[in-house]
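Notebook entry, structure prediction.
Reason for the run: the old model in the group folder had no record of what sequence produced it. Starting over properly, with the input documented here first.
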Amino acid sequence: MEPRICLDCGEPLKGRSDQKFCNDLCRNSYNNKKLSGSTNFMRKINRILKKNHAILEELNPEEKSTTFKSVLEKKEFNFKYYTNIYTTKTGRVYYFCYDQGYAELENNKFILVKNEDF
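New structure, fully documented this time:
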């Protein structure tokens, strides 16, 4: 029978026959390495979405307000990332970061809204 070794550090295992790691540190390290590739990409996108949401929430305390594109840009709002799009019957397109949305008006002005349905 081959000796059992820790999947992370390679040290011999002592104890239960179904044991895969020598301790919690190795288990966490192994799983973090295993998940790091695609997870880092998703974490980056989620950070951007959360930042966008926080900016919209800060600028929209009354659940409906207006602001200018320059204000959003100054706060480093990233217009490329949003969670969903809603188009009204009149054709206005709202981009949402979770429950906070925005639509472009004229002259670089934006309307900010909160969708209570989420």
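Summary: The helical segments are 24-59, 69-74.
The old model has been moved to the deprecated folder.
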